[in-house]
Amino acid sequence: PFAGDGSRMYRTGDLVRRRADGLLEYFGRQDNQVKLRGFRIELGEIEHQLTRLDEVARAAVVTLPDHHGGHQLVAYVVPATPGAGGDWPARLLDALRAHLPGHMVPAACVVVERLPLTNNGKLDVRALPAPVFEGAGRAPRNRAERLLCEVFADVLGVPGVGIDDSFFALGGHSLTATRAAAAVAAALGVRPGLEDLFAAPTPAGLAARLADRPDTGAGLVGPAAAPADGPVALSHAQRRLWLLYQLMADADPGYHIPLVFRLSVPVDTAAFDAALADVTARHEPLRTVFPADGETAHQRILDPGDAEVRLTVTDCRPAALDALLTAAVRAPFDLETEPPLRVTLFRTGEEQVLLVVLHHIAADGWSFTPLFRDLSRAYAARRAGAAPGFRPLPVRYRDHAAWQRAALGDRDDPGSLLARQLAHWRTALAGIPLCTPLPGDRPRPEYAGGAGAVVEFTVPAELRRELDELARAAGCTLFVVLQAALAGLLTRLGGGEDIVVGTPTAGRSDPALDDLVGFFVNTVVLRTDTSGNPTFSELLRRVREAWIPAYAHQDVPFDLLVEAVNPPRSLAHHPVFQIAFGLLNTEDSALELDGTTHHWRLAGTGSARFDLAFDAVSRTGADGAPGDLDISLEYATELFDRATVERLADRYVRLLRAAAAAPDRPLHTYALDPRESPAP
């Protein structure tokens, strides 16, 4: 009725009923169309392309769960000639690639003698055999492709990878991409940049891209890199924290990491104390002090017997627990003489609460997994009357510090890695706004007092899975999706169209560092252009294009980046950026006590390093699939009321939900408040 020539409109396949008030009531679908990774796919179209092939008698395509919590396409084919096998399924998929876009090519092709049917003649999906995913697509054709398939599978923890499988479609993200780059360097002698991995995310593509690259040399070396005793130079990250420690008031807990465990089993305090000694002996940063040395400091690594990291037990009344926890969280460290770890067990008679407080100079979020894994193993061993018997660590934190200084080189040497990366940041951050103009409840004071509070909220697992699918469809990572949503939200709330956000990077560029507790984190700056009311898909593209070079130049210590960019200094706000966003997407870190798993919760310190800081933690569901995203939103109380920040958190989740449902709509059409209707 609208085309004028009598042609039929697109048939959506949705089954609806028009109500008396004129609205449509949705009941479901009456065709085989599915939505997968942001694309609407007609399964019958894939089946038609398969049955066009002479060697295929019948075909059916279904969606099945994948190991990332999403879904993938699987084709079931009946050969026209019995006995088809070998590489025949892979050749069928190759034939489909010639006629269909990549998102419509099944992840696996399964040969069956017949398609199982129900009593009424429909396909019996439950009777189909489960596919074995050993990597979809073609097998490696040369040594480089074979090694890259092995690296991808090892880094991502999947059974196998074909040469046409995308690293990011299989669940890769920024940290695993960095590890993959290091593993590729070890296997091939050529280290790809993140830009290489995004431009060519499959083993076949990456092998071709790296074919003519020269050898990039050795990576991180072992214990010979740093002295076995005596003063040890600070890493760049430690130097930054030590300088901030000198500037902060003694009672400022801004760089404390307080982790709270609500325990459901009694603690054997003697065994736990012995386990603490085992762990501090294993991880040098937990028994390191930082005596001043002129204008800087150095690491002095204490002997295990001198560290005196012990479990403190405090019995108290239930009504006094919160006040005691707050006092313990905020108690200052004397970094020159005191190890940067305290552990306290509070017992009220009704419950047991374990508080682990780390100073950031000794650990970061990616340290939680090795720390609590080793503590759990040591506790179990000590409960059994034995030593834990840890395998020796391949390197120490002091080796990383020595290697880092050698790898970066001198900033006054134009050919050094440090000088080249600083030049990038001078260009990338030229003309950034002095301060993000986000409306607050109060004017910004002349001096930032540092007081803060935390609002906690959750992105539920079902929405997180939709965001994962959106990321795969866009060829990016979950972090890029979350960052794009934050940039869009800040623009919608009046933050301007040049959004500058700081984000932590793991700094663990070599797999040898995975099992170390230590402070490796650096901060990079992401600048996003949100002008022109872009669609969310377009905004994803912009963030991805900014993210790749930012992470490719992530080695510059943040204090040197600030010196290079040289923004006007102010005591009223943090330099370069005032809003931070981080995603901790390692495996869940938990404490195992007598077979019972306990997860940590990050306690508030009563301080705020930035105007707003989003810290997202990726959880794993009971079935092993990706679960909720738990987000702690720290805010400066001198700028914002709690109700304002709670509304901001709610709007962020609403924007994520709207973007997952309709990524091709302009940013300003999304409804961010309960009473707001989506714009047309």
Describe it for me?
The strands form eight sheets. A five-stranded mixed sheet has the order 13-14-15-9-22, sandwiched between helices. α3 crosses α6 (203-210) and α8 packs across α10 (368-383). It contains 17 helices and 24 strands. The mean pLDDT is 86.
Describe the secondary structure blueprint for this structure.
Layout: E1 14-18, E2 24-29, E3 33-36, E4 39-42, H1 43-51, E5 56-65, E6 71-79, H2 88-97, E7 108-111, H3 143-156, H4 174-188, H5 194-199, H6 203-210, E8 232-233, H7 236-247, E9 256-263, H8 269-282, E10 288-289, E11 292-293, E12 296-301, E13 311-315, H9 321-330, E14 341-347, E15 352-359, H10 368-383, H11 397-408, H12 417-428, E16 452-459, H13 461-474, H14 478-492, E17 498-505, E18 522-529, H15 536-552, H16 558-565, E19 579-584, E20 590-593, E21 596-599, E22 601-602, E23 612-620, E24 626-636, H17 642-661
Parallel strand pairs: 6-7, 13-14, 19-23
Antiparallel strand pairs: 1-2, 3-4, 5-6, 8-12, 9-15, 9-22, 10-12, 11-12, 14-15, 16-24, 17-18, 20-21, 23-24
Helix pairs in contact: 3-4, 3-6, 8-10, 12-16, 13-14, 13-17, 14-15, 14-17
